[in-house]
């Protein structure tokens, strides 16, 4: 037991020491991650092909959100889509969140501030599960108006000005049980 603990400590030293300039939050995430490297906690992510359509002038069509999500460290690559038919994957009483095709990844689009919140469950299906990494970004968008002859009707179609958005998780929270408690 003592030997195991010592080996875990020694294994951690070079990891932390090699990242002197990284934000301390990332160090904390790494030190919390499973010691055997089988299950790194999410730290960075990449969003590509982000498009958001929002209704205008009394159009009641729900917003439509599309993007690709990738996390190299946790080896996740998935598509994320919302068009009003997806169920709330989050706990009741909070801003609704939607699962990507890989439900390890979830997102919220906040229309008022045009911001995207990303959530990646940390180490699902392992003894280290129960936590989720979170971040919020406000992508730089370019928008064009859509008319009532287009599929969703009157609104605004926005595209990310950045080919790829490189995000860094900024919080790690315990997962709220769905439906609250
Ligand atoms: C909404 O998205 C789902 C896929 O999640 C798709 O099957 C469905 O056709 C879409 N509905 C509309 C009205 O675009
Ligand atoms: C995330 O961190 C990297 C450097 O580690 C930086 O280049 C990038 O701009 C950051 N992303 C955001 C959205 O701040």
UniProtKB/TrEMBL annotation:
It comes from the Eukaryota. Keywords: Signal. Residues 1-18 form the signal peptide. This is AA1-like domain-containing protein. It comes from Pseudoneurospora amorphoporcata.
